[in-house]
Design brief:
The structure holds 3 protein chains of 3 kinds. By secondary structure, chain B is α/β, with parallel strands linked by helices. Chain B folds into 2 domains: about 45-155 and about 290-315, Rossmann fold (3-Layer(aba) Sandwich), CATH 3.40.50.2300; about 155-285, Rossmann fold (3-Layer(aba) Sandwich). Chain B has helices at about 5-15, 55-70, 90-100, 120-125, 140-145, 155-170, 190-205, 220-230, 245-255, 270-280, 290-305; strands spanning about 30, 45-50, 75-85, 105-110, 130-135, 150-155, 175-180, 205-215, 235-240, 265, 285, 315, 320-325. In chain B, helix 2 packs across helix 11, helix 6 runs parallel beside helix 7 (about 190-205) and helix 8 packs across helix 9 (about 245-255). The chains are: A alpha/beta, B alpha/beta, C mainly alpha.
Chain lengths: ~525, ~325, ~325
Amino acid sequence: MNEPSALLTGRGLARCYGRVRALQHVDLDVNAGQIHALLGANGAGKSTLVRIISGLDRPSAGTMQFQGKLYAPADKRAAEAAGVQIVQQELNILPTLSVAENLMLGRFPAWAGVIRPRRLMELSRQALNRVGLTDLDPATMASEIGVGHRQLIEIAAALQRRCRLLILDEPTAALSAAEVRHLFDQLRRLKQQGTAIIYISHRLDEIRSLADRITILRDGRDVGVWNSGQLSDAELVRRMTGEAESAAGRPFVSWRQSRTALRISGLSSGPVQNVSLTVNRGERLGIAGLVGSGRTELLQALFGAETASAGRVQVEGRTSDAPFGHPAEAAAAGMGLVPEDRRHSGLLLSESIRANMTLSTLRSFSSFGMVRRTDEAAAVKRMTVQTDIRCTDTEQPVRTLSGGNQQKVVVARWLLRNSDILLFDEPTRGIDVAARRRIHDLIASLAQNGCAILMVSSDTDELLDHCDRIAVLSAGRLAAVFERPNWSREQIMQAAFSEYGARTRPSGDLCSEGDHSE
Amino acid sequence: MQRTGILPAAGVLLLPLLFLPGCRDSSETASVSENPADSSNGRPRVALIMKSLANEFFSTMAAGAEQHQADHADEYELIVNGIKDERDLARQVALVEEMTAAGVDAIVIAPADSKALVPVLRRARQAGVIVVNIDNRLDADVLRQENVRIPFVGPDNRAGARAVGACVAEHLQPGDQVAILEGIRTSDNARQRLLGFQDAMQAAGMEIVDSQSAEWEMSRASTVAASMLSEHPELAALLAANDSMALGALAAVRAAGRSGQILIAGFDNISAVRSAIQEGRILATADQHGDQLAVFGIEAALKILKNPDEIPDDVETPVDLITAETVAP
Amino acid sequence: MTGQAWKRAAVQYGGLLGVVVVLLLVFGLTSDNFLRRSTMISIANQIPDLTFIAVGMTLVLICGGIDLSVGSQLALASAVLGVLMTDFRWPLWAAVPVSLFSGSLCGLWNGVVSAAFRIPSFIVTLGMLEIARGTTKVLTDSQSLYLGSSVEWFGVPLSGIPVSPAFLLAVGTVLAGQFLLTQTVFGRYCVAIGTSEETVRLSGIRSWPVLVSVFVISGILCGLAGLAQTARLSTVDPNAAVGLELAAIAACVIGGTSLMGGRGSVIGSFFGVLIIAVLQTGLAHLGVSDASKQIITGCVIVAAVFLDALRTRFRSNGA
């Protein structure tokens, strides 16, 4: 039942915010029973476009038709009533309610205003089964479940409503490999049933395996629409960025020196148990592992953001080898952390690029407690150039920057402080392809200048492409350390599961076992 | 809470206890002159329920009552309670209920509100507790509606205010402008004093150009009085329904640079106002013998207890005019 | 200041100044003697207490905290002053430092408990509200203390100029507060902590010294407010400033300070104080009933905040 019939058509859609043109003259045709990918760098207008389709925003110009009728939803409710459901990047799960209550929020099965608990559970059970969360109890509090599951619950909630067109904005950013595979199965099934899907992602591999058609946006303009197999990855990237060079195939250059920069012995903290590692200057050490294996906690403990219960941390030029008790001590010893959740724990979103960049080094730009504005501005200017931050003015709030540029602001903060051990937690999550390459280039240049780098990533390819060595954590323990080029993706995966004990069946469905660890 | 010991934590948390007094009574707590549980010796137990004990007028009243009990320790027991601020009606109602439940023989009460307290006092009467009303007279209509008789022992506020007003009028010419700072309008005291001031001003032919509530408060009174002074440049006198407000008015007059040109009068004769009267900054106040008001009430209650069938009529207590000539040093 | 800085200030405070002017005009038209020099002087001499407190409150709010105990701290500081001067016959110059010290102690307690033990400042200062008020009543024996002329010079207009030393000090405090907030490392840390304490921590900065200092500053300013009020009334009132915390928070919010932290302006809060004071005085001039006063005050507070929200939204959309 794959006869292409245009379910939704948009013609000449445009949206201006003040003088900023987020979208101009975009055409779009989405067919029933197809998965339609929207591709584009951050700020290309993908989110604006789907906001318009889902009634969250109104176009400044242009028209839409849905199922052959003029379609101009006044708000999200109107769009939902028509059968257009959106699952946004920011999750709308209320942590104080149960999974079932979250699923049915606004549509509680009730009798005269009294909720019917059994019916509520039944309906949510169905909704959860639909996205394959068969062993999740609907009565669980939403606060107790992981990010990946929350994403699936959002999708389940959207499917629970009348759904002709489902819009997914970066649904896999927080999902584990198993969850992604599962989600894709469900999406394909929906497609079979005739639902149209608009799918936004930065990940070309996902789009290749999932999408039927691809619309590419660049700088708010519609570059064109292609069938899925029509373009190679390199061509897709070129059309998204407008640049000719390709990302793949650049040789890895090691900048590892012989001097040890950081030595960790027997470090334990929370789930992390007895981890010992050394990192040399100029070395890039990748840290792999499943979600919940203690990767983030390791970096946090190393940086003093979590209290270590045991172990030693030796840093060049530091006399004590006790673990750091507060990030202030770690920063003073030359360490810097680029946290995973950069919006909430890495940046002051409403503050300027300048204020964010100098946050850690204000004292060196001040005399008698007063900030010397000119010195500060000069340093910020220098760093903006050095880290290649694209902005109009260093006074603009970092909220207005793209993800990649935001990440560079955090890095610049530590560079201003001359930090020579940098801890990156998921440095390219939610960052578009072109910007991702710039971040990797920046990390490489840091290594070249002698920085020791620890990099946590869920994207094994990222580690394989950009690290000298890869340490694999499994259930909080250091399972293995691989040295370039003696590694393979399979070895890393096996190591990642190795500490989960008897439950692990190497040839079975590895990933679903891993889910239990969350 | 990283690596913080329990001891320093406890030390910091207990720090404010250093502020606590050694032996002075805290105003919030009930002070019991004798062990209230010990009623086996047959002495009647009297509960005195006041308004805010933070208000000097009421704390003096309570002190007078405690002195009286100490002098007559073998005749009765006394339990004194107050509320946090003048408007905390709910707490006062709860206090009446608690005292009734504790089985006291008599309640002597200065009601925070002249209507709202009537129902709970009726319930206390039904529970067999003798109730005597002091300071602020309960509303006659509501008493009638609730069908309960509660004797009032206290001063005639209207007459007191009339006397203060007359004293001020003696220093003015007929036709002069005066303004009144009222108390909280829901209280009977405030109404009676306002009426008393109005009586006196009418009788002497003065013009009342402004009359606003400053809610019994000093700082508020200073703000309101400052506005009155600039709105009515011809103003010759400010009549305040209590001494706190008179002090606030005094501050406003001084800030306006018109010290000595405006006559100020108050009511209650609190200690802070006495020096101002001696210095001539405030002309007059009324002394309703606050320290004895509760005592009058307690004596009335004891009398009823001896003779339960004879509930007396209201008892009027004296109000004296205080000026620079009569003020106690 | 450069031309641009003036322009920015005009954009930021133009709305608030507009509200003040509109209020002055409305009261000027409806009341006979409102628009006079004497009224303005009387407003100027009434606002120092609230101004001192609003400056401290602004800093606390910007750091993402709240200080509900300011009214009680004011009362406690003035009680300390009064008891030292009456019962112990201390001279003013000796009593004032002790009084300010009592305020700073309350602030220290608020700051240490909330920052070091991670208890929300709402709860800690709610506790202090009761503790300080109770202590005040203990110290004064719940009686008003009349201090006479020994302190009044601070609260009455000077001979040459029509404003009091308290007013001058309050204005100086506003300027110093704004300088502290915008020009110093400390101020930057305040804004950063209020925006995201986690980001500040992960940037290698300890936030507790900043938080404790902010509460201590608030406490000292409460002490100054206590001095100003005592001077204005020549009397220590144990029931002084009940509910003043709400007026101070209202002033800050009117001035554009966010209750969520991270955004605010000391000068804005000063405008908030002005709006509240003009409103209070104007309504007293009109002699309207208490009920109407409260309703009108509430409406003006909401309207002022609403206008400010409109302005911010307009600017962020327009830019």
